[in-house]
Every structure is written in structure tokens, then in C-alpha cells.
Design a protein that fits this description.
The structure is a homodimer of 214-residue chains. Chain A is of the alpha+beta class. The first copy, chain A, has helices at 8-20, 50-54, 59-67, 84-90, 121-124, 138-145, 164-169, and strands spanning 24-27, 31-34, 41-43, 71-81, 97-107, 110-120, 150-161, 177-187, 192-201, 205-212. Chain A is 24% helix and 40% strand. Chain A binds a DNA duplex (19 and 19 nucleotides) through residues 6-10, 12-13, 15, 26-32.
Chain lengths: 214, 214
DNA sequence: AAGTGGTCTAGACCACTTG
DNA sequence: AAGTGGTCTAGACCACTTG
């Protein structure tokens, strides 16, 4: 204000621009700080390979191994009747039981990803998928053990601004961009087994996809 | 201001929040308007298949066919010496000639994507790749005709906020999220042939990737 | 206690559009 | 001309931190 002879509000607007560009963070009472360039986590597309599951690594842990991060997650498990969207996408009846695994994934202790996974209850009842820790290779390994051979995954990616809930869960600054990914897992008969809605801090992740030319 | 008995600035801040969430747009002198939910353009991963090129469709046109959009693009072609990053990624010498195709892609007349494509000049000299319109199947078809068989593509995706330049080029509201994709095309010997830096209006696109399970 | 950031009021002026 | 949005000044108060 003194240096440029402008009012408080003008400085606030200026510094708010820098905040929204992700360059600085303000802490009330403490000051404005240049933001540390957040290290990029890479989700190589190899993370969904069967060889990784066979080696006992779930999709998230494969990422961790790649980037040198210590990944961890807390899961809340619950059963709910399928809403219309879920029913359509899982091709089950509206109201049928759905197992929901609601996870917060942390990297070196910091929350970096939200993941809400939905499966028809008929596939999960009595399996380790209903436990917080589903064991080596994750839920995909358990599905295959139960005879549901996976064939392919589809990921749909969009970019948008974080909602208020995401801002608080991922400790983002308001107005931060996120990557929203919806992954569907299909078995060899083309039946969807799982839908996973993920939200990632946009600037902390780089997604890597490998695509064949023919 | 009258309804809630608050000051002008307070209303401005409130409405600015809605703007950043992508819900409304302000036009000076005209008013605030609820933003039309922008239709989603889908980039199916099939867009890089050889069958599409053989059918005469480039990657962008395949998108268009899928979503019912009329896609168009304006390209500026230029030759520059390779900067360090480009040289490393294309595995050529710093300063070697690079062909740059700088494109703005429009959907139904509205700019929706920026794409800057870089290829070693040695691959493009005397080919239609150096023309604004490279012909049916796009530059990938021309590369294969010249004997450079494509094997795979790698796409790296991040989410971030639009820069000031991107805001004006894509007619975005300030603070809008974008998807930044860097695609590298490799031939059968594993040599990179092209690097394409794309910037997409985050909320207008949904990227679709297909991943095999094994 | 003094110095930060965050947000607010009241009033002003300019650019743009015509509800 | 009157009504919009955008931005600014000057001053105020509260929450939080300790430069």
C-alpha cells in the first residue's frame, strides 16, 4: 500500500490473483508466502497392469513406488442402495446394494487424492474387499481371485475447480484446479465391476497414458 | 446491495466466487448471466488409431465426428532452432531446425483448444506437414507415408489454471481451469517423432482413455 | 502490544449497454 | 439518459501470529 500508494482492497485483489495462479499462499496473521512448487506424482498407466497386482501392489502403491512417495490411505466402508447413476453405470437395479469404499489417499502424510469406489454388493460380500485393507494387490486382485477376470479399464478425465468440500479435504487454496477421473473396470464379458470417482489436486499430479498407434 | 444491505464490494466478491466456479459470467454494462453449461467434447482414445487415419480422419476430426461438432483449426507454420527442452525430448541437437505447427482449434466457431506441435525439420522438409493443411489423416498419416511407422503415443495430463494468454485465446473467464496435455508420438524404433503441447478448456472437455488390464 | 491477513462499508469514477 | 459491471480510495473491525 505504501510503496504503490494504493488502498488495502487493491492490494488484496492483486495478491488474490497471485494466489489463484498458485504462486503464493496467505496465512492469516502470519503473512504471504511464495508457495513451494509441489512435486509431481506420476500415475503411470502401467499401474493397472496384472503384473503389478501379481507382485502384490495395488494401483496406488504402484504410483508410490514410482515417485518415491510414502502413500497411505484411510478407507471408510459402507453399503448403500444404488442411486440412479450408479445403477445405470454398474448395470444393476436401482436400489440394489452397493459397496462403497470412500478413501482419502495421503502422500508423505498430506492428503492428495479422494477416491470413492462403488461395486455391486454381490461381488464383494464375504470378501476382503469389504475390509478397510483388502490385502496385497488391492481390490482388483481380490476380484480376480473370486473369478472375475479383468479385461480393461476406462478412465474419463476432466479439469475443474475444487468444490468447497474438496478444498478442505485436500487442504487446497480456494479456486485451485483439480483433475476429476472416473474409472470403470470391466471384466472379460464387458460387465462393469467397479466405478471409481477420483479427485486429484491438479497441480500435484501428472497423469501418464500410453496409447497404441494401431 | 439493497436486498442484503451490503456494500458494492461485498456483492462483487460474492459474484466473483460464482464466476470462478464457472456458474455465471459478467459482461460489463450488460449484467450477470447464468453460464450455459458447456457441452462436453470427448476425445476418445480411439482417435489415435491407424484405422481412423486410413479413413482420412486426423485426431481432431475424429473427435468432431464423435460429438457432432464442426471442428476447424487455423495453423501457423514456422521453423525455429530447437530449445533445450525440445532438443532433449525429440532427441536432436540443441539449435537443430524444428518445424512448429501452432494451432488454434475451434468447435462451431468457438476456440476450444490450443496445440503447439514440434517435429524435427528433417522429417518434414518437402512434405505436406509444412503446409497449413497437411491433407487427409493429418500429419500422422503423412509421417507414415514417408516411412515413419508410428508405434505408440504417450500423453501426460495435468490440471492447472489458465494463463493470461490462454484466457484471451480461449475466451475463458480469468481463473478458469485448463487441461494441459503433452503428447509424444514414437515410431517403431522408439524414436520420438513429434511433441504436441495442448491446452484445453478444462470444463469443456472430457478425455477418455482405454487401458488394458494385462 | 504490534503487526499481519480477511473482510466489510460508503462513496467515487469510468466503461459499456440499453435489461 | 439511466442502468449496468469493474475498480478504486479511505477508513473500520476482527482473527490470528509473533516476521
Amino acid at each position: 500500500m505504501a510503496r504503490y500508494k494504493v488502498s488495502r482492497q487493491t492490494v488484496q485483489n492483486a495478491v488474490d490473483l497471485l494466489r489463484r495462479e498458485g504462486l503464493v499462499t496467505g496465512r492469516q496473521g502470519a503473512g504471504w508466502f511464495v508457495r513451494e512448487k509441489p512435486a509431481v506424482l506420476r500415475l503411470a498407466s502401467s499401474r493397472l497392469r496384472r503384473s503389478e497386482r501379481d507382485a502384490g501392489r495395488g494401483a496406488s502403491l504402484t504410483d508410490a513406488a514410482q515417485g518415491g512417495w510414502t502413500l497411505d490411505s484411510k478407507a471408510t466402508i459402507r453399503v448403500e442402495p444404488a442411486c440412479e447413476r450408479t445403477a445405470t453405470e454398474l448395470r444393476i437395479e436401482t436400489g440394489a446394494e452397493v459397496l462403497i469404499r470412500d478413501r482419502v489417499i495421503t502422500a508423505d502424510g498430506h492428503p492428495v487424492q479422494l477416491a470413492v469406489s462403488r461395486l455391486p454388493r454381490t461381488l464383494t460380500e464375504g470378501t476382503a474387499i469389504e475390509r478397510e485393507n483388502p490385502g496385497p494387490g488391492g481390490i482388483y486382485a481380490r476380484l480376480e481371485e473370486a473369478g472375475h477376470q479383468l479385461e480393461r479399464f476406462e478412465e474419463r478425465v476432466t479439469g475443474r475447480l475444487a468444490t468447497a468440500d474438496e478444498v478442505s479435504a485436500l487442504r487446497l487454496d480456494p479456486g485451485s484446479p483439480v483433475l476429476a477421473i472416473t474409472r470403470t473396470a470391466y471384466d472379460t464379458s464387458g460387465t462393469p465391476l467397479e466405478i471409481n470417482d477420483m479427485v486429484l489436486a491438479g497441480e500435484r499430479y501428472e497423469l501418464i497414458y500410453d496409447l497404441p498407434a494401431d
